[in-house]
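Residues pack. One example:


***
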Amino acid sequence: MFKKILPAGKDFIEEIVDPADTLIDATCGNGHDSAYLSALVPNGHVYSFDIQSQAIESAKNNYPKTNISFIHDGHENIGSHVKAPVKAGIFNLGYLPGGDKSITTAYQTTIAAINELFKLLTAGGRIIIVVYHGHDSGKIERDALLDYLTSWDQNQAQVLMYQYINQKNNAPFLLVIEKLR
């Protein structure tokens, strides 16, 4: 049986991560991905970003791990906060579950964040992007990301799309970027 989207995304991370690696949660939300990444790198570090102070505070309270830095800033500013080589990063696009649905990720800052994170990635490192496109801004972000990523140089990165094409209700899909050099 095929894996669902979120477990498949985790597999793409687990295949490459070592216990001392640096990882990025580009969309902290409630902190679930940050906690998951933290467990993968007990001797490493996780940097977790969100523009909503509510999300950062909730994540800090729910997951007070010592190897997670929760950063109240936009993911497009990853390069200002992280200087270490990064093995992997994850984005869950859309809005904060249980939060204000009018506050969403936007393609402009997401693309800027992907570019910043790609600069920090080690060769063989990966960026996992879960695209939720069941809302208006999600559709715009989806289209912009697909247009942008299809133009990437295949000698620099491989870009994979993992999607169920016969699902109703705009099921989320994965984009996986692997840095080649």
Q: What stands out?
A: DSSP finds six helices and seven strands in the chain.
